[in-house]
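Why does residue order matter? Because the sequence determines the fold. Keep that principle in mind as you read this record.
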Amino acid sequence: MLTQDGSRSIRRERVLLSLGAAFYLVGTLALTLARSVADEPLPSPARWLAAALSFALAFGGLHLSLNRLLPRRDPFLLPTAALLTGWGLLLIGRLAPNFLLRQSLWLLLSAGALVAVVRLSRDMRRLRRFRYTWLLGGLALLAATLVFGVNPSGYGPRLWLGVGGVYLQPAEILKLLLTIYLASYLAEKGELLTGEEWRVWRWRLPQPAYVGPLLAMLGLTLLLLARQQDLGAAMLFFLTFLAMLYLATGRRSYVVVGLALFVGMGFLGYHLSERVALRIDGWLDPWPGAADRSFQIVQSLLAFGAGGVFGQGLGLGHPTFIPAVHTDFIFAAIGEEFGLAGVTASVALYGLLLLRGFRAAVRAAHPFARFLAAGLTSGLTVQAWVIMAGNAKLAPITGVTLPFVSYGGSSLLTNFIALGLLLRVSADREMTVAGDGRERALLLRLAAGLTLALALLTIGCGYWAVLRAGELSRRDDNPRRVLYERHIIRGRILDRHGVVLADTEVAADGLVTRRYPLPEAAPVVGYASLRYGTGGIEAACDDLLRGETARTPWQAAVDDLLHRPPHGADVRLTLDARLQAQAQRALEGQAGAVVLLDAADGEILALASAPTFDPERLDEEWEQLSDDPAAPLVNRATQGLYQPGAALQTVILAESLVTGVTTPSAPVRNATAVFVLDGESLACSGPLTGTPTLAAAYGAGCPAPFADLGERLGADGIAAAVARWGLTAPPPLELETAAAEVGPLRTTAGLREEAIGQGHLTVSPLQIALVAGTLANGGRRPIPGLLLTGEHGVGRQVIPPTVADMLLDAWPSLGDGVRGHLGLAIAGRGQRPLAWFLGVGAGGRYAVVVLIEQAADPHRAAEIGRELLMALQRSNL
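Structure:
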């Protein structure tokens, strides 16, 4: 007859099962909606319907059957299992659709097995009396895998027995039978284990006659598992044994010694088994092997980081990057798609199962039932903790399944049988708490310890999902980052007139491709590659081009919720596309650099570097470009450092004029003398006509007079000159720039070499362009810039306007208002010289610098500079 207490329990269970069914229904609808945006395949509607029917039949049928068989059962156990099982079906259908129907059939079979167990366990004496028979039968099945074992996947450990396409893992059944054996033995012999003790020195040990059979059966089990190298099952069995031994004896020392023995066995396994060593290495430090041996665990941690607090949403994450995610790493899938909130909820469900299982143990009417309930509950909790901790790098990966959730017929069947036994114990309970105070205290301590382990697990998952999420998302080996980037519509990069230099092409599937219509702009524009990152303006303005800077926190949150990548903003440069193309093409076939700028406001109109690269072919040519000794990926205009040679004459002469050391009209002797350095000759770059004055020698690029000026200026004067023009500091620019220091000048020879630009100082073409721009701007140094909205303009006064005019007047006229200074520099023994050209044109507003390495014809540098200035005048910019 159904009591009032039983009726209330049934109603409560019915309500909780309804909540579980609602969760499953909502999840199914969410996955159906996600079909339109998910990259992974999802099951057909027919399979979803079959899974839903199996869920409804299994738990609806169990509820109705148990109402008659166990009306006083615990009302939380079955709904908790239902929620976990439904969650598992959703994840299996989402992660491995081909296995959904098979798991649904196993669910129906498991539900039938649960009812059968409940019926057959009315009298538990059969389980208690035939403990050796049950255990030896399980061991025989496990031993059979050594001969007849198979692996359904076709590779890996052969831990299954298969008949007619149906596979059974004996270790799962043995787990249950070992718990029954331990419960029966400890219920019968538990008091003897502590009553009559065997003293060995200071240690008090159980009598061998009592503990021997226990250790023999456990040892035989572990030996068989060791032969199979089944680390997960061995860990699970041993920890469950320690938990039940503690309940029987209350001796913490046994637990400590047992854990020490387990660590020792792990140490031996590490050195004797390559498979065990691989898993332990992956646990201790997975990052070095992230691409191969530790790929699974690293991808698992990346999944937790991707999930964050609230997850990507069911069907909207990418947990399938983890191999075997539907079995060993399904907890990581929960972390990615449900976030830390889902992780906490799943751990809480196992915590609820733990508390209700131990509640049944506390109220059990018989010691065997008490040990059985506690052992089954401990086993389920330990198994859940071991696999979840392995996913979160709190323990080595073991290969066990997550109870009720992971794919696996043997596991699901065993879990339901264990659930049936727990339901039987909970229904046959005493109305009041059974057992003495000591037994209750031990049960409560063990429950508290396992609860603490679950709490620490949640904290560990939070560490990866919150504290390390940003770092994990930025890792180069995170495939989610690549997928996200492939959907970002980067903004365009335009020249000053709106000509497109970089654009984004969007395919029908939403994937994007970066296009570069003007490859000659590569030294400035750079590249945006999913594989190799960004460079140039693409890197300098990355956040703006990606749309990150313009988004408010609310917009970012909404975009993340809707999985909508940001749309980047456009960037407009100071470059003139036509002049940029002309400058880059002029350098074709030779190494060098060109900088053309507006001296009045610092805007760079062209910045070329050769050799260069095609940004659209960067991925396929990266290795070749990286290994090329000509360094095409280096921007010579901003990062290349060269001997200035005659290009430094402007700086030395300006310092001499400002400090009154000399005048432009001062006569010079031996103006055309050849300067020999390390076996290489340095002479005038042009003819010296008329009276050999300092101005004439400067205009012809003759080095000898400047060597004399170096002596007169001295070390302090040269250092002051270099500092005045800012040649030892990288120029401010949106791109990366470089600079070098002046070395110690202790000898006369050192002063002379430094003054002619052949000493320690090296300069970039951009720095020399600013020297030319300073002269064109009346002695005020331009602040260079590549962004129209950037912080460029005119800076400090370097030299008086009169001195700037004197220097410009000394430059030879090249016609059409263009003046220029051509000079040479020794590049090294056996090498052709560097050719430097500094030019000013268009009414003195624009300045250009051209550098050519290994110049066969130095005058080609002057031709390039003059042609650019003439083109600029014709353009009416």
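Residues 330-362 form the longest helix (33 residues).
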